Amino acid sequence: MKRFLTLMLLILSLILTTLTVIAQSDDKAVVDKYIATQAKRERGEEPDGIRKTIEGDLNHDGVSDVAVLYTIEGQGGSNNYIQYLAVFIRKKTGLVFAARASVGGKNHRGMDFTSIKDNVMHFETTGYADRDPSCCPSIKGTTTFALVGAKLVEKRRK
Fold first, then answer.
1. At 76, is the secondary structure helix, strand, or coil?
2. In what order do the strands lie in the sheet with 120-127?
3. DSSP helix/strand/coil, 107
């Protein structure tokens, strides 16, 4: 009997692990497609390896949603870059795009996720002082964004 229960728990564990991997793969495909479409519209591209993704409840339903901080650069052949925050809400059918905002970029500020707590996304920021070169903002700060209806609203900026 013990062997049977152990075997059943092992099988159940493998099934749940497989379902989680499939769901994560589907999530990535939804996000990849969304960002690729936006980059094409802007005639730019997303640089490799700097996208940040974080999960947490953003719409007060108790289900983990996905927030993505990503960059599109080279719009129309320029040397510009813009950082965007996009939120995808988890529905029964999978992730669904909810909102996007431009949150940083060249000569504006840099952003980095710290967490999602109480339905709010928390970020560390780096802003530009008057004499900072365009590559290197130096003023450290923090901010938060929340999903309010179909918009991302910056709540607190320091």
1. helix
2. 52-56, 65-73, 81-91, 94-105, 109-117, 120-127, 139-148, 151-157
3. coil
Q: Percent of the chain having pLDDT more than 90?
A: 69
User: The tokens 């599109």 sit on which residue?
Assistant: 72
The pLDDT tens digits for 67-110 are: 999 999 999 999 999 999 999 999 998 999 999 999 999 888 99
Query: What tokens does 138 get?
Result: 């130096």
Give the C-alpha separation, 99 to 67, whole Å. Answer: 10
End-to-end Cα separation, the chain, in angstroms: 60
Residues 6+ apart with CB under 8 A from 129: 137, 138, 139
Measured distance CA(151)–CA(106) in Å, rounded = 23
pLDDT digits (tens, 9 = 90+) for 110-126: 999 999 999 999 999 99
Residue boundaries of the structural domains of the chain: 2-157
Question: Alpha helices, DSSP H only, in the chain?
Answer: 2-41
8 A C-beta contact, residue 83 and residue 102: yes
Residue 142: count other Cβ atoms within 10 Å of its Cβ. Answer: 12
